[in-house]
Amino acid sequence: MNKKDAALRQITAAIEHFEAQQYECAITLAGAAEGQIKTDEGSEHLFAKLKVMAPEEFENEREWASWLNTTRDWLKHETPHLGDDWEINAFGAAVMIARAITKFGWAYQQGTKQMQEFIEKCQKSGMYIDRTQQKS
Description:
By secondary structure, the chain is an all-alpha fold. The chain has helices at 3-19, 23-36, 46-51, 61-68, 70-76, 90-108, 113-124. The longest helix has 19 residues, at 90-108.
């Protein structure tokens, strides 16, 4: 097993969990895939682009990135400051999967038909996800 294959399997399983409306599983798997994929400083995958778009109410990019990862972190770690109940929905799961897909595409210059179909389905449902995330 290598990191690329592990990430590919995790993304595939995340999509399958998403389709079964098991959003907590989808988020956890996609977050794990995204976290293990190495990219360079100038990468243009979805999370890299989101991080630089911090709203004014956040003091810095790090605080914003932490907020973007709150649901993933609530699922992965003990988070007494966040409480025992958390809303987990399709939109949050779709964004986490898109983050993993675009980072995979950026790092490895490839993807799968299932990944492409997922992105297209998100776009058609109104959850626009920019497909310009991969290197040209």
